[in-house]
UniProtKB/TrEMBL annotation:
Record keyword Transport present: yes
Membrane topology: Multi-pass membrane protein
Residue ranges of every copy of the ABC transmembrane type-2 domain listed in the record: 69-306
Signal peptide: none
Transmembrane segments: 68-90, 102-123, 144-172, 184-207, 219-238, 285-304
Name of the protein: Transport permease protein
A Gene Ontology molecular function term of the record: ABC-type transporter activity
Length: 314
């Protein structure tokens, strides 16, 4: 048989070619296969920040599509709520006489409650609402509940603007302790909301009644935290047995935010703290934050456990 000539002029050896092919196959066999699926978890979401930004912009734009005033409604709605609380509590019920600047007390708490309720409501439906996008794009599925949280935070800024105007008018004079309380309070509610949003988003895929149960629970949250009433009322009615009440992370977050915004507007801050704030508030807040972080880890594991079954259920 005539030998085939290689391009370099040397004779082609079939046996040598077979040996080289076998060597290349063995080398490729040792190379680990990369998974086509994107990295999951919060880390995977952070690695896809550009997609997360696009998803948040998409959610914000969709909320005001076809609206004449657009983002102006983000200021009108909380502003009307603030004036309503001034009228009802300060003028109609007369609580402004017993509790100084009670409208700020209510509005500061309302901001925390609104952030929580909007996050878990949107987070619960985030996967089922974006089912078509989820099946067409390779992205971490946790991105949808995280985007719901960021959208809620984005719509919190108009409320901060309105609150800031009221704080300037009432002579807000905070210290580092008050600022630390506000940061801790929002850290608690953000982590707690994200953890529940992750778990509820998976639950909604397998049990469509989850969103209805969330709506019912949210109706009780406003009355389960010291918003419409001061904490001192709870302490006096339960005669010091408030551990179960303060075991609620939302209540701790509300009290911390009130410590930041409402307490510095009062004429005697030390008296306000003694009368209307629980003992060891920062310790309770740190415990609540630690519990929320543990819950976030558990929520991530639950999400990962059922993540592969989501596409077939959608």
């Amino acid at each position: 048989m005539t030998d085939t000539i290689k391009s370099d002029g040397a004779a082609w050896d079939p046996e040598e070619h077979a040996r080289n092919a076998a060597t290349r196959s063995a080398a490729l066999a040792d190379v680990p296969l990369a998974s086509p699926a994107p990295r999951g978890g919060i880390r995977g979401v952070l690695e896809h920040r550009y997609l997360l930004t696009l998803l948040v912009k998409r959610e914000v734009t969709a909320r005001y599509t076809g609206s004449f005033l657009g983002m102006v409604w983000s200021y009108i709605t909380p502003l009307t709520q603030f004036f309503m609380y001034i009228f009802i509590f300060a003028l109609l019920l007369g609580r402004g006489k017993a509790i100084e600047h009670f409208a700020i007390h209510v509005f500061a708490a309302l901001m925390v409650v609104t952030l929580f309720t909007e996050t878990i409501q949107a987070g619960t439906r985030s996967i089922t609402r974006n089912s078509s996008l989820l099946q067409k794009s390779a992205m971490p599925r946790e991105m949808f509940p995280v985007a719901s949280l960021l959208v809620s935070i984005y719509h919190l800024w108009p409320e901060f603007v309105i609150l800031a105007i009221a704080l300037v008018y009432t002579g807000w004079s905070p210290d580092l302790t008050a600022v630390a309380a506000g940061v801790l309070g929002y850290a608690v509610i953000i982590v707690f909301s994200l953890a529940l949003g992750l778990m509820l988003s998976v639950s909604q895929v397998f049990l469509r009644d989850t969103s209805q149960m969330v709506n019912v629970i949210n109706n009780f949250i406003r009355f389960g935290v010291p918003m419409m009433y001061p904490y001192s009322l709870v302490a006096s009615r339960f005669h010091g047995h408030t551990d179960l009440y303060l075991a609620n992370p939302i209540a701790d977050a509300v009290l911390l935010v009130q410590r930041c915004f409402w307490v510095p507007t009062t004429s005697d801050q030390q008296e306000t703290i003694a009368l209307h704030m629980p003992d060891h508030l920062f310790t309770r807040g740190l415990i609540a934050l630690a519990a929320a972080l543990v819950l976030l880890v558990v929520a991530q594991k639950v999400f990962a456990r059922f993540e592969n079954k989501i596409p077939e259920r959608l």
